[in-house]
Design a protein that fits this description.
Strand order of the largest sheet of chain A: 8-11-14-17-20-25-28-31-34-37-39-40
CATH superfamily of the largest domain in chain A: Hexapeptide repeat proteins
Number of domains of chain A: 2
Largest interface: A-B, 60 and 64 residues
Shape of chain A: flat
Oligomer: homotrimer
Number of strands of chain A: 40
Largest sheet of chain A: 12 strands, mixed
CATH architecture of the largest domain in chain A: 3 Solenoid
CATH class of the largest domain in chain A: Mainly Beta
Amino acid sequence: MTGETLGTLAARVGASVVGNPDRQIRDIRTLTEAGPEDLAVYHNRRYLSDARESRAGALLVKDPTPFPGRDLMVSGDPYLALAVLLEVFHPPRRPSPGVHPSAVLATSARLGVDVSVGPFVVMGENVIVGDRAVLGPGCVLGDGVCVGEETVLHPRVVIEAGCRVGARCILHAGVVVGSDGYGFATSGGIHCKIPQVGAVVIEDDVELGANVCVDRGSLGETRIGRGTKVDNLVQIAHNVRIGEHCLLVAQAGISGSTELGHHVVMAGQSGVVGHVRLGDRTVVTGKAGAVGDTEPGSMISGFPGRPHAEWLRAVGNLFKLEALRRRVSDLEKRLREMGE
Amino acid sequence: MTGETLGTLAARVGASVVGNPDRQIRDIRTLTEAGPEDLAVYHNRRYLSDARESRAGALLVKDPTPFPGRDLMVSGDPYLALAVLLEVFHPPRRPSPGVHPSAVLATSARLGVDVSVGPFVVMGENVIVGDRAVLGPGCVLGDGVCVGEETVLHPRVVIEAGCRVGARCILHAGVVVGSDGYGFATSGGIHCKIPQVGAVVIEDDVELGANVCVDRGSLGETRIGRGTKVDNLVQIAHNVRIGEHCLLVAQAGISGSTELGHHVVMAGQSGVVGHVRLGDRTVVTGKAGAVGDTEPGSMISGFPGRPHAEWLRAVGNLFKLEALRRRVSDLEKRLREMGE
Amino acid sequence: MTGETLGTLAARVGASVVGNPDRQIRDIRTLTEAGPEDLAVYHNRRYLSDARESRAGALLVKDPTPFPGRDLMVSGDPYLALAVLLEVFHPPRRPSPGVHPSAVLATSARLGVDVSVGPFVVMGENVIVGDRAVLGPGCVLGDGVCVGEETVLHPRVVIEAGCRVGARCILHAGVVVGSDGYGFATSGGIHCKIPQVGAVVIEDDVELGANVCVDRGSLGETRIGRGTKVDNLVQIAHNVRIGEHCLLVAQAGISGSTELGHHVVMAGQSGVVGHVRLGDRTVVTGKAGAVGDTEPGSMISGFPGRPHAEWLRAVGNLFKLEALRRRVSDLEKRLREMGE
């Protein structure tokens, strides 16, 4: 990549140019790191002063007003434009196709065209891998696992027997798919394991962050819907069903048999109990714990989870309790005085 | 498995049959997925309508009353019966015994009979592995590690030097046993590492979920008692001592040198501070954080952890604060009027 | 190690001896496990009775007063002395230098002197490893990774392409450095991945616990400052900048683009939102969640995070609400009586 003009780049993402469209752009960098040959994006008001002071040759912005006299690429959705432009300057590097000689594959494994299998990969019987998929070093695929086309497994991903991963998924290092669900029948104080004989189905275009755990169904399946994106260290228990296009932020946890509609957001370190349903577009805010079904579009905060506005009011009142106590003391004193 | 009759299956678990004992059962499936040749279990009232509408050939239930006219297997503990019956239809598949040629074992390693060692396993000096144990692909056992008989290590489990795992344990993928405890002596603003020279002892019949971490003792040992079951992504710090038959649910965390009695339950995302003792049968509820010793049978909620009933009352009151404030305002107004 | 005298050991750490300096010490053990030939450390008042009853030949203490008649090593900082003395009795065991024949290294990899590369290690192109570094079994280093001298990677650490780890670092098993940050531009309900093209820089003397995740910068870098110590299962998001000598305890989480000053402490299961700055020496207490910038030296508790003293008062008041409600009811009753 030797650079393109601001105008050419803008055309790629349907953006307009303010200033000089012939300015050469050689990379995209952060507001503070960018120099005269770089484009930098401004999409969060916290960084307005950084943007104003940036040495970037051009800024990618939504609104040109705060930046008179600068070369600008103006887009209705700068963050989306950034996603496209980053691929121009940083095309994804896929390893060369082929199976590393150290990999251990059962003869029954069926690989699509241009699959890349890294060193020390292990595949059990009857594994199917789609075209152009990438299996990084040390990945382990149990018997009967299917991996869809163009899916990328980073190093050391484990997919246990019988689980299926769709197309164009990205599983980061250390992900475990298909570990046993946590199910025990307790009798006489002894926890007797319920065999976990279901599986995991991950639909297309899902991303799982580093060290995420997805348990297999006890009976039946655990399912993650198309387009859902999961951050690092998230726990997804057995028989959970997650709808399409959900966002599960780092360290969130979803208990067994709970169902999430589509476009549900679970913020960082949030949780939800088992056997409930979060309606479409529900948001469980940071550190909150949902304890029951929710209506579509709900926002749940605190623990036990309550509607966000109610929780905000309660927390606000909590920090005014000192004042309330003083008012009650005052009332008591005045009543005493009136009584005397 | 070509199927058994309902009566034969019931006899295996000491259950009785209502309806046709000669009905052929070919599998166990969920209430919603089961068909006429399947048995389905009903053990949670949330799913009563699913059970009533289920197409299952027979239901495994505790109480036959809600299901007149259906073929039933009636058991005092359906969930326990399920554990046994699932093994009938889904017998556990152990890999064939033998050491994969790619495994790297020190010559001092001693393996019992019928041990299975998968590809890319690494064992240090003086490792001992009991009869019929299974070491999945990519497991790493440091010097002096002992693994008991019939224990199963899923792929990529790491057991660091000197740690011992008992018999019939199950360690899921990505488990780390024996990482250094988190101990530093801070001097002049520099955190100086305290060498962690203890070990981890995991007793018999313990299960550790995916990506669980158990730190070695600083001095002396970290110990997990017999029959304790640990869910995914749980943190167990150095010198923790966990009693027998405890349940540690996903993402729980136990700080250093804390002791748990037997049958303690730590629910999802709960925690406990260091250097305390949770008495036998203590329950720390979801997201709670215990901050001191507890009596046997305690139930602790919230943070800082309080007795559950007290916490419930406090949370209830918190959400009634708005009303209380109005009552105080009203009193103030009436007093003002009386003063006038 | 066949033992040293109490006096010789004391001299190594600048401590003084009370009692017999010629007493032979053969190991350091815990207060409850130590015998007549062992030294045991007493540094936490919780364990005073254990110390008094200890069978240890000698005690390492700060204050000799509670232990008349015993052989003592008296140090201004017993815990720091312990760190030094443990290395005497338990010198760290490094594996022999050399590259295991099973390792897969690109020919462009450059290894320093006396590097140890374990079985099944994988290195991409242009990797640089400093002198005396140790790469445990199954580690994966992507293209262009640098690892500093004397750094130890425990088994199965993954460092993705372009990330740099300083000198004398310790990365425990299962650590992932350089996974993609969690960044998406949502358009028409579809989450479009923002390519994560930055890297991770880990400075010297950093320790990362088991299964820790550190995401690469979206643009620019994620950085962990010199001397910072990170416990197990911590999440560090993209573009986070952590200062020097911070302590991040188990299961803490730091959201994207947040900056920590030096000597910041995040206690267990705590969190902080994105795009804020925690001032130097800020402490976020257990389970708390900081939601804004903090002044140097702040202590933040609860969620949403508040100054610790304010939070303590609020929680105290919360548990006195029952009493306050009774006082208000009483006032209402008295006013009613006065009105009659």
